[in-house]
Amino acid sequence: MFLSIHPQHDKTFDKLTALRFRKPGAPHPWIELAKREVSMGKKLAILLIPAVALTLALAGGFAPAAVQAAVAQKGNENRKTVWDGVFTAVQAERGRDAYAVHCVSCHADDLRGMGGPALKGQEFMDKWREDSVKSLFTFIQTNMPQRARSSLSEKTYVDIVAHILAVNMFPAGSEELSTDALGSIQIVGKDGPAPIPEFALIEVVGCLAQGSNALWTLTNVTAPVRTRNQEGATAAELQASAARPLGTGTFRLVYVDSLRPGFLPEPHVGHKLHAKGYLLRNDDIGDGLSVTWLEAVAPTCTN
Ligand code: HEC
Questions:
Q1: What number is the average pLDDT over the span 139-154?
Q2: Is 138 inside a domain boundary?
């Protein structure tokens, strides 16, 4: 029994499309991605290999150099991290009181989660690390409390974020967290900056190319940064991407052919592109991007 590897005929295809249109926060169908990755790389009817083996193989890979370098490049020296005492103890106390009123029913007293997911621990950190506190704040402000989104004052949301940071064991400092500061504070785990986790939604800039095997590739790719919106790009984002110096990475692009109605990659070969998608790692065939958005930001691809 052999399975076609053409995307349109691949049995995992519909599920992967579902991944891109899943509800925010809904779980990723990891294993389908993993299967798809392997079938892309080996061009075999590899779906027959037990799922567990695939998961282990993918999980065991070490971070490619491009992703490692990404981390080092992202910030400038003036950026702070959550280890720099970016909220006060008094503010976190205020946040705890607000949390007890507005959040506790779904996320539990100690943030371990109940109806909603845990807001502390490894999984929570992996979801938000290598990103700014602003991303976490914006998510909470626009989505929570779940049945009364955006219903609290900005100050209350900031205080609640301070509480969440405190419970996650980040130290208090002498200055309150403010909305202005959110964007310049990076969430970093206890072992310091780390590669962006596999399957995270990322944003990069690179040059579009098509190899002899017809596979689409981005070359000269910049260090990946985390993003939270899988589709679309604001004028400001596109402008920033246009101005970003190119990098040295290479990404295989997966699912370019099903990107969005009316988007054809062919006319953009050699253009500088703003790209978003899910980060795929594969030591054999290199970093990949399950593309959710591509948009040209310059008609040539030079720095
Ligand atoms: C009625 C239940 C409910 C209430 C109340 C609620 N949440 Fe949630 N929360 C959820 C659910 C369900 C999810 C997962 C789905 C999603 O991400 O939208 C979630 C997700 C989250 C996440 C993302 C977690 C992650 O890592 O994926 C954060 C952060 C969060 N909530 C914070 C808060 C805060 C802060 C409050 C109070 C202001 C709050 N929530 C109130 C149900 C709730």
A1: 97
A2: yes
